[in-house]
Every structure is written in structure tokens, then in C-alpha cells.
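Researcher: Structure prediction, please.
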Amino acid sequence: MMLCADFEDRLTDYLDGALPSEAQRECAEHVLRCPVCHDLLSEVRATVSACQASLVPVEPSAGFEAQVIQRTAPETAMTCEEFEEHLTDYLDGFLPAALYHRWERHAALCTHCTELPGAVVRSIGACYTALSEDLPMPAGLHARILEETIGTANAREVRASFSSRLIERLRALVDATVTPQFATVATMLLVAVLVGTTTISDDGSIGGMYRAGLRLAAQTYVRGATSASQSVALPAGIRRVAGEWAEVVAESTEGGVLREGGRKQSAGRESAADDAPSGTSNQGDNR
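Model: Predicted structure follows.
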């Protein structure tokens, strides 16, 4: 036989079903026989049910977490200027995680910045809506534009002069014909300049290439003039003029090599002229 005191001691375990099967059966029999313990069991069950019904989880307010962090870590707070500066990146989803949470906390606490993102989004939507709509052209807009730009609403009355139209047609014809060829010629010139500055120029510049060209031309002229001055088939006067010009060109050209070569060739020309037969010379003079 279970006493009421024993039932009260085992009441919590009885409600939780934690008692052994024999003790659980004895508690159930005692409740059926004892009206006091029956009422006690009913009150305890009602109280437990009421407590379980009242334990509904309460969600904290939107700014609760932001307020706690602001009080505990004030150095992480964001100013309104920083909030507006990062607004575009926030809407585009480009904010880093740490900066994103700071931005969210400021939006939850600042009454001035809370409505700003929504207002910007609505403005962007209104702009897209306006751009997608085909607005009718105001009446007379075309005529007013012509009046302001060319002074008349009838565009046919404005016509360029004959010379201007002729120049435009010639220019179009020349551009269509010359432009492709000009590109090819320009490319060839660039290649020629690159090769010349690399192989001919002594210092790798265009000026060096020019000086090298002058030296080559002078050498060619000196050799030709020297050959002419040594030729027995030419009259003596032509040979003399050719020799003098060879000396002038050789001395006016940069570099001692050309001058030295011109002198040697001139000396050879004089010795050849001295050794030439008189009959041949007279024939040249008669010619």
C-alpha cells in the first residue's frame, strides 16, 4: 500500500514516465483510490501544460543586436557618410562580410538612413520604367530644332554650294581609292625604315641612315667619276672635269675613307693619263 507522501515524492518521475513499471503501476492505483492525490496530479498537469504553452520563443527586435554591438564595440559603428558611400555596392551585392554587417547595423539604428535604400531602389525602378516607355514626340519639335540650327523649318531650302559638293564627291572617291593603297605604302615605309636603321645606320637612328645613304651615294659618284676620268674613250676635257668633281665630292663627304679613296683614285687617274699614248689623246681631242 503506497502512502500519499510516497506518491508526492514520486510525482515528478511519474509524470515524466521515469519510474520502473511496478512503481508506475502502484502510483496509478494510488491515484485511483486517493481523491486528494488525484486532485494534486490534475493540478500539476494543468500547471505544466500552462507553462509549456507560455514558453513561446520571443524574437528580439530588429535593432536589438545592433544596439548590443554598438554598446559593446562602438569602434565598429558606421557614420551616415560611410553608409551612403557604400550604398551602391550594397545594392549590387559587392560588400565584404564585415562591412556588410556594419552597414546592416547602421541601417537598423539610424532613422535617417533606414528608408534610404528603399527610396533608391524605387527611384531606380522608376527610371527603368521611364526608359522602357516610348514617349510621344511633342508636336512641332522637329521644326523648332531646324529653326534653331539652320534658320528654316524646310531642310530642302538649305543646300551646300556646288564647289563644296564637288569637293566632297572627289574626297569620297579619293578616299575609297587611295586609303587602302596608303595603308600598304605606309607599312612598306615602316618596314624599310626599320631595316635601314638596323642594318645601314651606324647609331640606329633615321639621321644615321641618312648619313650612311649620303656616304654610299658619294662613294658611288666618286667611283663613277674616277672611272670616267680614267677612260681613254672620253675626251680629255670630260676626263678632267670628272676628276675634279670626284675630288670635290670626296672631300665634302664625311669620313676620311672616302677622301683618301678619292685621292688614291685621282693619283691613279693622273698616272694613267701620263702613260697614255699621244695618238690616243689626240684622237680624243679631235673628237
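Model: Residues 254-265, 275-287 have pLDDT under 50 and may be disordered.
Researcher: Thanks, that helps.
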